[in-house]
Design brief:
Blueprint (H helix, E strand, L loop, with lengths): L1 E5 L7 H12 L3 E3 L8 E6 L3 H8 L4 E6 L11 E4 L4 E4 L12 E5 L5 E8 L2 E6 L3 H9 L2 H4 L14 H4 L3 H19 L4 E3 L10 E8 L7 H16 L4 H14 L8 H9 L5 E5 L21 H13 L3 E6 L7 H15 L5 E4 L9 H7 L4 E2 L31 E2 L4 E2 L2 H4 L3 H18 L3 E5 L11 H16 L3 E2 L2 H17 L1 E3 L2 E4 L10 E4 L7 E5 L4 E5 L2 E5 L9 E6 L1
Helix pairs in contact: 7-8
């Protein structure tokens, strides 16, 4: 357990940090008001010698993050080294003047990032950067709100230094690692929940936006045949032959944009599942309202049958919002109803067409329409981390009207291949870098592949890349999850962590559903010399270095689970 104490009254937005850090790290943290105290305190705000002395008398260890009045996000950030990458620190570095402290963590550029020392006899670690304020600004999308809009009405992206790497995830990881270090240093066990099911190192979200479902309409067939026939006059008939062959295949039911079976096979063959976002297609949606609206040139029965097959294949069916749905609640509700009344299932998530998103409107509409998550935040022309994080997150505090909404950011969309000025090799290099950043952060990598873009005659490098990317992820032992699985997992983590009770030498969780794939870890430097009893479940356990990994499997919410440290 960690107590959060705010020493400056103006730091109220830290509640957004607390909520997301708790679920991201799996460490119980809460704003301290009164009552029993945790062994360790995280102090944020004005941190003076007097402040440190006060808390040294009440806690076994102190972690301090000094706040700053200005909120500059550096264009050329400093970095700290992880095992595999240099992680950016998107906060202004401060000069700390505390006698008797030494550098515990330094940046790659050789500045002090975390200082270690003692306040009296109390272990104290002080950060040299205001990671909380910078994290709130990035995570909330504040940096985009004044960036202007592009020609489609979308926010322009934040600076490159913000979106190239998941800095928020790395900020969280750094604070999490300091907390773990402190607990081991003071000789107390720490209970936390691994980030992903079955203690997986990282996760994968595969998704598909269904924009087109037929390539060879009558109009396009005639047009393409006419154009390619011109090659015959110049004795270059290859394109004509390929066009005729593709049209004939389409007549036999193998249209190159109808790639559902191929994608099912590729993904399930690697042990993965995916989420499929369908646009509304009946009645008024049969005609375009603007140039970018998707229109499905197939029978409604064919679309409905494919959606049912998606569900039967243990994948997820979700909404691809169009037109005004990204800011108009009633328009979004109408599109949801057009499907739910036909399919007979409740849709849980949405990604808006053309990644249409506006702060202050889109997520509020998603919440009011009764959805659980949005998966729109990303870029069509580059891989990256739009809100600086490689995981689902809560865009708002619990008290916000849309406080229940989960955002699942998008890290790579196949449109990168169409926009890459340095060709497919450059696109693949940047996608791989983004994936490695997400993996290094122990995070989520979110992928969007349009089935129509898998047509080898249009983007030949894309299908080849995807076929090689999936086995790589499988060999990395990534955990594949659909959008609604990610959402339920993140909400379950929050509920379990908030319900955790602690006392002397014990922790208890009761009255809340615990997913069967949720592990628990007790961390201690001398874990092999300690004994614990787990009450309320059977399950299994495993010792791994300084960790005891507990897999309770099935937990009765009424009985709960209790972890007791034996003498």
């Amino acid at each position: 357990m960690i107590d959060l104490v705010l020493t400056s009254p103006g730091e109220g937005p830290a509640t957004l940090f607390t909520r997301n850090f708790r679920v991201h790290s799996g460490i119980p943290i809460g704003l301290y008001e009164d009552g029993p105290r945790a062994p360790v305190v995280l102090v944020y705000g004005d941190i003076t010698e007097e402040t440190l002395r006060y808390y040294s008398e009440r806690y076994s260890a102190i972690i301090g993050i000094p706040s700053i009045a200005y909120d500059e996000i550096p264009e050329n950030p400093q970095h700290y080294e992880t095992m595999t990458v240099k992680a950016p620190i998107l906060a202004k570095m401060q000069n700390l003047h505390h006698g008797g402290y030494h550098r515990f963590v330094k940046t790659f550029e050789d500045s002090a990032l975390v200082m270690e020392g003692f306040t009296g006899k109390t272990l104290t670690l002080l950060f040299a950067a205001d990671l909380i304020k910078s994290t709130i600004r990035i995570l909330s999308g504040e940096l985009e709100k004044n960036s202007g809009l592009d020609r489609f009405g979308r926010h322009n992206p934040a600076p490159e230094s913000v979106i190239n790497a998941p800095a928020v995830s790395f900020h969280f990881n750094l604070i999490e690692n300091v907390i773990r270090y402190v607990y081991k240093k003071i000789g107390l066990p720490l209970l936390y929940i691994p980030r992903w099911p079955k203690s997986a190192t990282h996760a994968l979200f595969l998704s598909h936006d269904i924009d087109v479902v037929r390539k060879w309409t009558i109009k396009r067939s005639l047009s393409e045949l006419a154009v390619s026939a011109g090659d015959l006059i110049r004795f270059k008939g290859q394109r004509f032959v390929e066009t005729v062959f593709s049209i004939c295949n389409a007549l036999r039911g193998k249209d190159p944009y109808w790639m559902f079976d191929e994608l099912f096979f590729m993904e399930s063959g690697n042990g993965f599942k995916s989420t499929w976002f369908f646009a509304p297609f009946v009645k008024e949606y049969q005609k375009r309202e603007n140039d970018i609206d998707p229109v499905y040139r197939r029978k409604a029965s064919e679309i409905t049958t494919m959606i049912r097959r998606i569900i039967e294949n243990d994948c997820e069916f979700a909404l691809h919002g169009t037109r005004k749905a990204f800011f108009d609640t009633e328009a979004l509700k109408a599109q949801l109803n057009s499907y739910e009344s036909r399919i007979g299932i409740k849709i849980q998530g949405v990604r808006h067409h053309y990644l249409m998103f506006r702060h202050g409107e889109t997520l509020e509409a998603v919440s009011e329409a009764g959805l659980s998550y949005d998966a729109t935040l990303g870029f069509s022309d580059r891989p990256g981390f739009r809100n600086g994080i490689a995981s689902p997150f809560f865009p708002f505090p619990v008290s916000h009207p849309a406080g229940k909404i989960i955002e699942i950011p998008l890290n790579f969309m196949d449109g990168v291949f169409l926009h890459a000025e340095d060709g497919s090799e450059g696109a693949i290099r940047r996608i791989t870098e983004a994936y490695l950043f997400a993996k290094a952060a122990g995070g989520l990598f979110s992928v969007l592949m349009h089935p129509g873009n898998m047509d080898k005659s249009e983007i030949p490098e894309l299908a080849q890349f995807y076929r090689s990317f999936l086995p790589r992820c499988r060999l990395d032992r990534v955990h594949s999850m659909t959008g609604i699985e990610l959402t339920k997992w993140w909400i379950s983590r929050e509920n379990v962590l908030k319900s955790l009770e602690f006392g002397k030498d014990m922790w208890r969780i009761k009255g809340v559903e615990i997913p069967t794939e949720m592990d628990f870890v007790i961390l201690a430097h001398d874990i092999r010399n300690r004994k614990f009893s787990i009450e309320g479940v059977k399950g299994t356990s495993e010792l791994n270095h300084d960790k005891l990994i507990i897999r309770p499997e099935l937990v009765d919410p009424e009985k709960g689970i209790t972890f007791i440290k034996k003498k």
